[in-house]
Amino acid sequence: MQADPLATDIPLSLWYDQPAREAITEGLPLGNGHLGALVLGGVDCDRWVLNEGTFFNGGPYEPTNPEALAALPRVRELIFNREYQAATALAEEKMLGKPKFQAEYQPLGDLWIEFPDHENYAGYRRELDLDRAIHTTRYSANGVEYCREVFISAADQVLVARFTASRQAQLHCILRVTSEQRGTLERHRGVEQWYTSADFGMRGRNHAAWGIDGALSFEFAGTIRNLGGRVMPGESRVSIRGANELVLVCAAATNYRRYNDLSVDPIDLVNSRLEAVKQLTFQDLLKRHLTDYQERFHRLTIELGPAWDAAAAPTDARIAAFAQGQDAPLAALYVQYARYLLLACSREKSQPANLQGLWNDNLRPPWGCKCTININTEMNYWVTEPAALPECGEPLLQLLEDLAISGHVTAKAHYGARGWVAHHNIDLWRATAPVDGAEWGLWPLGGAWLSLQLWDHYQFTLDPNYLKRIYPLLKGACEFFCDYLIEDPNSGHIVTCPSESPENRHPFGTTVCAGPAVDGAILRDLFSATIESARLLNVDTEFQATLERLHHRLPPYRIGKAGQLQEWQEDWDLQAPEPHHRHVSHLFGLHPSRQISPRTTPELAQAARRTLELRGDAATGWSLAWKVNFWARLLDGERALELLELLLSPDRSYTNLFDAHPPFQIDGNFGGAAGILELLVQSERGRLHLLPALPAAWSEGKLLGVRARGAISVDMRWYNHALVGASITSAIDQTIVLTIARSEPTELHLSAGIPQVI
After folding, report:
1. DSSP string spanning 433-465?
2. Are 697 and 638 in contact (CB under 8 A)?
3. CA 710 to chain centre
4. Per-residue pLDDT tens for 465-496?
5. Going along 417-542, which residue ranges are E strands?
6. Phi, then psi, of 12 in degrees rounded to 5
7. What is the separation of C-alpha 298 from the centre of its chain, rounded to a whole number of angstroms?
8. Are 176 and 240 in contact (CB under 8 A)?
């Protein structure tokens, strides 16, 4: 059999030849959706930052502002009279939620492992193996080789670590836990009464947030299994002396059950998790972890070439090389790292990935480390479907099912509207009112955009049961806008008012306005998706007709005097105070929507291109990631790769490959990975485009298991920039239009479950 010219054996790992100094920028992440850790890999003292996905500050609250509804007509009048500053001031005073700010994601604390006699060491290597989701630290000290392995199991909901030495009785270490949370007690067996079967741990309560008292309690506890040696409890630590092998098994929980239900007993839950694995050996736990993780992770393979011995270099060196146009395989690793991160921070029954996924070491994290839903949370989930991890989107659906309840209260109280609404930020307590300030928070499209993520999931799966589940959410989001949209006396179109083009000020010194381009783009998709859903489910005929009428009255896209796609109804773009602003929301129609494309709307596509040229390439990390997707949709692979090289440069990617906003935001990781896949496969229902925007530097490669809209899976290989083989499998019988690279489209019939080889 002839050898595959594309066959490679590139290790899927991040590795370094020195310990991390900073947790967020250098530590390596582990997680199972609920419990997370950043491992620094120190030698004489190792620090593991601990997180639990439900641990925010504050407690349940209702942020309704009783003055908002009465102020709404006057705010609208001021906007339509172009008195934007006065409208902003009134909205700031009367329409924001109470409190004005939301709760923030919190760290539990730190687990410290000290090795007092290991100051002098050699042969150091720390590594995150993406294929096995295991962190390993290796080095030698005093003539002994030491190894620490740690993983966090989704199968058993525990953190597991094993420490070994090359010589007997040479493991000597000290364990201790610390926390900055309120009322924390750090306990160790034998020192004072310990109410679980654990050997060490801590428990405490969260801090208050903006006048809302802390209502969460937490528990973190671990057991020590030592082969040989002695375990000696102390007042603030546990010492282990002379062991041959050491295994730690830890669990964490809070009393959170739902945003309005704190009835869980975290002590019982942690104790039950530890008790459930009591009889399982390290190898048992490892096997169960790998079975669960690899079934998901192994669904997709990606290689970008030409391949070379890049993996021989530490990852921080590879980042520098990629920014110089070298090391193409790092882009493939970046995709797999994003898939790893998604599996680590967004699992079934977990919270959705927040601004930092699952990882935070700061009591006052940047932007509160919440779910920001005017781009960032949505970007977190762009990669979910094409990267073959659909179950990782379940927490997002669960979030929206909560928001439909809390957002209904906000819709009625703030706007006198039916349905439900969410603005630009969401915390653990599902607060949906406008927050932070009128210039950021007075944007009522966050819930609508999130709803479109659910519709896109349906496009990939075509699961009728899923459609039945999400339809009430789509309908409720539409019902709000049926009541909220108002005729603009200046144009005759129906518009959102008040609203804003997220976070970007127009020439009148504020963001507050009526009917920005992004709102019309989102509503066109939301109304269309809801109409199609209702037709498929054979329900709500009159409601469909209502949405069709509203759809036709939305403001159209406009092209400005510089040839750009206008951000606002009026041609303000060139006078905006920040012409290179990181938000490019008015290009929503290009991506993630498909309202604009070179194939169907060439004039609008050219205007979108002009907008990107005027905005420039330089941006924060997540904005660069979005621009990679924009250029992919414009079929310009070379420009997309230029931006990817900026994203994957030392200025925008930390040494642990976390995206630098700065500081860290995980949306750039997920959005950048989605952009890489978008360069290789693009799809919409009934259409599939392979290698639509392949950069010249990726002259050869393979992509196996990528998913496409229409319940399609694709395996493909290319060599010398040409497709050399592809297999397309559909879950249903259908005929699609297939395009390969720049070739002419052709029809292809697919039979359910039978691979079509081309």
Report:
1. S--S-HHHH--TTHHHHHHHHHHHHHHHH--HH
2. no
3. 23
4. 999 999 999 999 999 999 999 999 999 999 99
5. 425-426, 486-487, 494-495, 499-500, 512-513
6. -95, 80
7. 20
8. no
The answer to whether 692 and 682 are in contact (CB under 8 A) is yes
Under CATH, which number does the domain 72-98+370-594 receive? 1.50.10.10
Question: Nearest to residue 121, comparing CAs of 47, 174, 42, 176?
Answer: 42
Task: Inform me whether the pLDDT recorded for 395 exceeds 60.
Answer: yes
Could you give the 3-state DSSP secondary structure of residue 269? helix
The residues with which 249 forms a beta bridge, in sequence order, are: 160, 223
A 10 A CB-CB count for 548 gives: 12
Max Cα–Cα distance, the chain, nearest Å: 83
Q: What is the DSSP string of 127-162?
A: EEETTTTEEEEEEEETTEEEEEEEEEETTTTEEEEE
Q: Which residues pair with 149 in a beta bridge?
A: 136, 162
Closest CA relative to residue 402, chosen from 278, 260, 195, 299: 260
- CA atoms in the 13 A half-sphere facing the CB of 100: 10
The domain spans of the chain are: 16-56+108-297, 72-98+370-594
* Residue 213: HSE in the Cβ half-sphere, 13 Å Cα cutoff: 2
Tell me the three state secondary structure of residue 667: helix
Which three-class secondary structure state does DSSP give residue 233?
Answer: strand
CATH entry, 16-56+108-297, from 3.40.50.720, 1.20.1600.10, 2.70.98.50, 2.60.40.10: 2.70.98.50
Using CB atoms within 10 Å of the CB of residue 528, give its burial: 0 to 12 exposed, 13 to 18 middle, 19+ buried.
middle
Residue corresponding to tokens 């009430």: 472
| pLDDT, tens digit (0-9, with 9 covering 90-100), for 193-243 | 555 667 899 999 999 999 999 999 999 999 999 889 898 887 678 999 999
Q: Which of 129, 151, 137 is nearest to 13 (CA)?
A: 129
Q: Enter the tokens of residue 562.
A: 């510089």
* CA 729 to centroid of chain Cα atoms: 28
Which residue's structure tokens are 């079967």? 197
What radius of gyration do the chain's Cα atoms show?
26
Beta-carbon neighbour count of residue 123 at 10 Å? Answer: 11
Burial of 4 (0-12, 13-18, 19+ CB in 10 A): exposed
User: Which tokens in the block code for residue 435?
Assistant: 């927050």
Distance in angstroms (rounded) separating the CA atoms of residues 423 and 425? 6
Alpha carbon 579 to chain centroid distance? Answer: 27
Cα 514 to Cα 496: distance, rounded to the nearest angstrom: 6
- Residues 411 and 405: their CA atoms lie apart, in Å, by 10
- Nearest-5° Cα angle at 303, 301 to 305: 175
Angle between helices 621-633 and 602-615 (to 10 degrees): 150
The answer to whether the CB of 175 falls within 8 A of the CB of 252 is no
CA-to-CA distance for 687 and 708, rounded, in angstroms? 9
First-to-last C-alpha distance (Å) of the chain = 20
**Average pLDDT of 70-91?**
98
Query: What distances in angstroms separate CA 378 from CA 28, 102, 461, 671, one per listed residue?
Result: 24, 19, 18, 9
Joined together, the tokens standing for residue 579 give 């012409």
Q: Which pLDDT score is estimated for 6?
A: 41
Single-letter code of the amino acid located at 572: W
158/69 Cα distance (integer angstroms): 48
Side-chain half-sphere exposure of 240, counting CA atoms within 13 A: 28
CB 95 within 8 A of CB 442: yes
What tokens does 28 get?
A: 């390596």
Q: How far is CA 80 from the centre of its chain?
A: 37
C-alpha closest to that of 345 among 203, 161, 133: 133
Predicted confidence (pLDDT) per residue in 499-534, tens digit: 999 999 999 999 999 999 999 999 999 999 999 999
Q: Tell me the torsion sign for CA atoms 434, 439, 442, 445.
A: negative
